[in-house]
Structures are given as structure tokens and as C-alpha cells.
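Thread: uridine-5'-diphosphate complex, take 2
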Amino acid sequence: MTQNLPLQSLQKLMILIPAYNEQEVLPESLPILQKIIQELIDSQQIAPDSGFMIVSDGSSDQTWPLIEQAHEADPRVMGLKFSRNFGHQNALIAGLTVISQQKLADFVISIDADLQDDPQAIKQMVEQYRAGSEIVFGVRNNRDSDSWFKRVTAETFYSLLGKMGVHLIPEHADFRLLGPKAITAFLQYQEENMFIRGIIPLLGFESSRVYYARRKRLAGKSKYPLLKMLSFAWDGITSFSIAPLRLVLSLGVIFALFGLVMLVYTLIVKLRGATEAGWSSLMISIWIVGGFQMMAVGLTGEYIGKIFSEVKHRPRFTIEKKLLK
Ligand code: UDP
Ligand code: MG
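Output below.
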């Protein structure tokens, strides 16, 4: 016999969905999610006023009107409209900020609008939260639905980060459950170049994982074209690790040592009176050293740029409209 808790002690869940030009997807994915939430409510696992927070990240299509319609039909569907595109990570931060400030929910599950992450896993996440996990990571156990290119680039990126000492949960993206303590702790991280999946494992707390198969996008195109993906990866590396700076430094040392060897070699050759046609070696070293210096300066500049943007402390997003209960 299952023992039902009294209604008051049921916790309120909010599903947080970042949406950037998702008009093809939302009308399909929202009802699927609503059904799952309703089932959880009916089985008395979450509070009846649990709902949704959809953040339109500067969408230029019908995404926002669709959110407004959904809100009218069911006020448990809430929305935030950004004044422009601030990016996926900032959409998640904004959602968590508003949910926490307005006390809209006890715990939050973030999921992409395209339902590539299996929404059925939400049920297991809730179960694990009720069993005491403060954070539940959604982990995909295959990437069959991703293109060959996306798979290879993603794997390279994660192994590179791992070698630099940034340990992410493998195959976990932004499908996760955060309990109230984790949300409060997360919102203390005020950095501007935020790579959320790197921060969450740093929070501590009891955590668990839910495995699922990643699917194809319901509809529409990926909002991460190659350049945006590369810039996301680059931000992930440079906002988490100074390994590239160290690499440049060690390369510098190697180059300098090589220079010393060359110096000795040239002196010996000269003292022996041999005439060396030194043009090619000179040109080669100029190019190599010059290129290396430019790389070092550029890389240092990247970090200084990051410091610059952190120091300015600009807001990470601007909310133009809110649709709350
Ligand atoms: N997204 C966003 N702002 C952006 C890019 C993407 O809010 O600038 C949202 C998008 O609507 C989706 C999620 O982030 O809900 C993940 O994007 P997508 O599915 O296109 O990425 P992929 O699965 O191809 O990596
Ligand atoms: Mg997707």
C-alpha cells in the first residue's frame, strides 16, 4: 500500500524551459510535458499548483505569443520574455532567479524545448528528489540521434576539458533537477561567463543520476550552429580553466630552451669559421616564434577580456515582460 503524504507537504515543481525561436516545437512539447506533470500531480507526488516557466530568449518568431496563449489557457504556465537574445545559459539563470525570488516553486527541473531529453525521465528525477537527492543529473546513454559531427566535437570537448582538470558529468547537459538548497547555492555564483554544467557539480549536496536515451529534435533546427557551439565550448574552457595559459607558458619555456641551444650551436659553427647560410633557419625561427608570441598574446587577451567583462558586472539578462500567476 502506498502511503500518501498530506497535501500541504507536497512540494511544488517548476519545469524550466529555455526557448529561442521554438514555434515549431513548443505546441508539441508543452502538452507532452503538461501530461507528465498532471500525472505526477494526480499520483500526489508533487503539489497541484506545480507548473512551467518558459523563457523566450529574444525569439523573433511566434514563441512568445504561444507562451501567452498557453498562460491564458492555464495560468500555471508562466513566462519570461527577454529583451533580446542573451543565450541559453542566461535563460536558465533568469528562470531560476525569478522562481527563487518570487517563491514560485520548491524545486526546478530544466529541460530543452525540443524534448531531445526524454521527458519521461522527469518522473524518475522527482522520485530521486523525494528520496533525498538535492540534485539529479539527466545523463544520456547514447548520442545516436546526434550527427556524427556533433558527437565527435562534443566528445573531444569533454575529454579536453577533463584533461584540463574540469570534471563535468559525462553526457550530462542542461537536463537536471535542482532542489531549493542547490538553487540558492547556485544563485550565489554571479559570474557573467557562466558555464552552468561546470558549476553545478561544484555546489556539493547529495546528487544522483537518471539515464535516458537522447532523441532527435521534435521539430525545427538546432539553435546551436557550428560557430555558436564552438564559442560555447571555448567559453566553457576559458571560464573554467587556466590550463591554456599554462600550456602557453610551458611552450614558451621550451622555445626559450631551444633558442639557447640554437645560440650555442651557432656560436660553435661561427668559431669554427664555417660559413653557414643561415637564412632558412632564421626565417623559420622568426615565423615560429612570431606565431607563438601572437598566440600567447591572443590567449592572454582572451582571459583579460573575460576579466574585463566580469569587472563591468553587466546584468546577465534583461527581462522585458513577465507572465506570472
Ligand atoms: N536556446 C536558447 N537560447 C539560445 C540557443 C538555444 O534559449 O541562444 C534554447 C533552445 O530553444 C533549446 C535549448 O536552448 O530549448 C537547446 O538548444 P538546441 O536544442 O537548439 O541545442 P542542441 O540540442 O542542438 O545542442
Ligand atoms: Mg536540442
